[in-house]
């Protein structure tokens, strides 16, 4: 195989290198995976306006997300169990993002802890919070994120109940993973993955072990995690979090104009239009198809970001054209990480940057901050 040229190439390589249960964990969507597919398909339905004979020199992709300078408007989305795609995965991805000049968001459900990431980065990263029933635990997490100097708190609002991914159940994936002889065989046939894991010192959920009440070993951790997602979570909790955090706040998982208005009312700095990468409500619309309505509803009150379905720099450009000030990639960087470690995350970011740059030029624009709906030839949304 030649060097990966696209995110699809990185995906194919990751499929070969990462044990099936972890590749599937990253790759899958909930139930029929209809929303997961729509996320990608709906980007493809948007057509760009080709322009010619305009000056294309000195192009810039530099922008800002929540007032933070970014080398391009793309952040790494929070993803759980990232350290199972590649040893020390969260630390490698955080370093790659820092060197590239884009934000890295650490998930509550990461393998490496907040402190692990702080020990390998010199610039502030972002921290994603799942609001658990155990509020003392949440307070502790918020305080740790503050101590680590995190520059933004991303509160995920769309996971009060877990959407079922059939592949994970069929593969016997639990949190944390319990390995059967079949899994061990699958891992043994992935030598690169095994060698990496043999070197890593980090196992289990770095942000949770040792901090949650009554959690002392892996099996108590597993049941604690399962019962901790909070079905009572409400906008009042977001207000409480905002007060305690007292810093930049982003609300993730907004897919409806009414919810977007409620999010803007909280005074948060940004929302992420997201359906969790098609992993929660199967049957929900794609993120990109909801973006224009949400921008119309709240774009003058709050910064609007988007994730779910971005697989190329063209997709980022389309999201920006429809009003997103920033975007996030989940699977594209996970595929890169699983395929080639830190180098693969860098490659994923480089692929996206190059595609975005060339597409912007061919649409007759030189500066990402001037990209707007005028570059769209056809958009069904
Ligand atoms: C996620 N996502 C996610 N979101 C979150 O807020 N906290 C989390 O721990 C996770 N975990 C997670 C694991 C994996 C394997 C994936 C693929 C996704 C959702 C993530 O932040 C983001 O919304 C989607 O990944 C965006 O869609 P794409 O880019 O993967 O299509």
From TrEMBL:
InterPro entries attached to this UniProt entry: Aldolase_TIM, Alpha-hydoxy_acid_DH_FMN, FMN-dep_DH, FMN_HAD, FMN_hydac_DH_AS
Pfam family, one: FMN_dh
Domain FMN hydroxy acid dehydrogenase, residue spans: 1-381
EC number: 1.1.1.27
Cofactor (UniProt): FMN
GO molecular function: L-lactate dehydrogenase (NAD+) activity
SUPFAM superfamilies the record matches: FMN-linked oxidoreductases (SSF51395)
Keyword Flavoprotein: yes
Keywords linked to the UniProt accession: Flavoprotein, FMN, Oxidoreductase
Family: Belongs to the FMN-dependent alpha-hydroxy acid dehydrogenase family.
Protein name: L-lactate dehydrogenase
């Amino acid at each position: 195989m030649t060097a990966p040229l696209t995110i699809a190439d990185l995906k194919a390589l990751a499929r070969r290198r990462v044990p099936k249960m972890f590749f599937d964990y990253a790759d899958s969507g909930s139930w029929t995976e209809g929303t997961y597919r729509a996320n990608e398909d709906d980007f493809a339905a948007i057509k760009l306006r080709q322009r010619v004979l305009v000056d294309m020199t000195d192009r810039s992709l530099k922008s800002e997300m929540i007032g933070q300078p970014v080398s391009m408007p793309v952040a790494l989305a929070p993803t759980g169990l990232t350290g199972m795609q590649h040893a020390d995965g969260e630390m490698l991805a955080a370093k790659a993002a820092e060197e590239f000049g884009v934000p890295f968001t650490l998930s509550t459900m990461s393998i490496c802890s907040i402190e692990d990431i702080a020990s390998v980065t010199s610039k502030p990263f972002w921290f994603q919070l799942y609001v658990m029933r155990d509020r003392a635990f949440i307070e502790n997490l918020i305080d740790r994120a503050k101590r680590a100097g995190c520059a933004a708190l991303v509160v995920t609002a769309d996971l009060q109940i877990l959407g079922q991914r059939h592949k994970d159940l069929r593969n016997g994936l639990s949190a944390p993973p319990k390995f059967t002889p079949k899994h061990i065989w699958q891992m043994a046939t992935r030598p690169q993955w095994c060698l990496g894991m043999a070197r890593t010192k980090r196992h289990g959920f770095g942000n949770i072990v040792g901090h949650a009440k009554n959690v002392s070993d892996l099996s108590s951790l597993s049941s604690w995690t399962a019962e901790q997602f909070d079905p009572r979570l409400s906008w009042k909790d977001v207000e409480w979090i905002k007060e305690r955090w007292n810093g930049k706040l982003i609300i993730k998982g907004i897919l409806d104009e009414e919810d977007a208005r409620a999010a803007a009312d909280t005074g948060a700095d940004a929302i992420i239009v997201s359906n969790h990468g098609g992993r929660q409500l199967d049957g929900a619309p794609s993120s990109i198809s909801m973006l224009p309505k949400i921008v119309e509803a709240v774009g003058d009150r709050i910064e609007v970001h988007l994730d779910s379905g971005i697989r190329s720099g063209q997709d980022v450009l389309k999201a920006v054209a429809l009003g997103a000030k920033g975007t996030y990639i989940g699977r594209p960087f996970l595929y890169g990480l699983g395929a080639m470690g830190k180098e693969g995350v860098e490659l994923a970011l480089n692929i996206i940057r190059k595609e975005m740059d060339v597409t912007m030029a061919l649409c007759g624009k030189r500066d990402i901050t001037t990209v707007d709906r005028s570059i769209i030839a056809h958009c069904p949304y």
